[in-house]
Amino acid sequence: MTEAVAATRRSRITPEREAELYEAVLDLLREVGYDALTMDAVAARTRSSKATLYRQWGGKADLVAKAVRHNKPGGPADEVDTGSLRGDLHALTLRSDDCEMEQNSALMRGLAMAMHGNPDLLRAFRDHLIEPEMAAFRRVLQRAIDRGEVRADNPAIDYVMHMMIGGFAARTLIDEQPPTQAFLLSYIDAVVLPALGVPAS
From what superkingdom does this record's organism come (predicted)? Predict the structure, then answer.
């Protein structure tokens, strides 16, 4: 497909309409889960034709992945530049309030389980969310290296995203509480920054 044709297809849906569709998809995901979600249900909920949905997104996996990406607060992680790694990590955490974190935590737990049995969903998440986020996060860390905050040979650099996701997920699994801004900010200061050799104050 040429870029011109792809742009023409995308232009048939306005950004406002696209946002409405994504919100409806997320609502359905929270109600029925990924496996029970159907393109028919999305079409009915959004008063769209199923043909339009398939033409625009190709299938359920890509639609869901793009809906989750659209729901992510703020732009790419590397758009945040406070002048320090601690400031950047705190600013990224503060993009979501506690209510949003709780909703997103429940949604992502369900999708993580669904990915185990749905290779298409895993691929879509890698393409549209995981890889772009990892690349943006690497740029945040590279700025910290360039500023001299983090040594380039620090072995923890490759695991920062793992630590961040781990803290978010473990809050519910271990403490049986939703992640909150206060918890994640203290986790960054107590775990992530010391692993990178960065002062937490």
Answer: Bacteria
Determine phi and psi for 177, rounding to 5 degrees: -135, 155
Of residues 102, 91, 80, the one with CA closest to residue 185: 91
Report the sign of the C-alpha dihedral through residues 70, 133, 168, 189, in that order.
Answer: negative
**pLDDT in single tens digits along all 201 residues of the chain:** 444 444 444 447 888 899 999 999 999 999 999 999 999 999 999 998 899 899 999 999 999 999 999 888 777 888 999 999 999 999 999 998 999 888 888 888 889 889 988 999 999 999 998 899 899 999 999 999 999 999 999 999 999 999 998 998 889 889 889 899 999 999 999 999 999 999 987
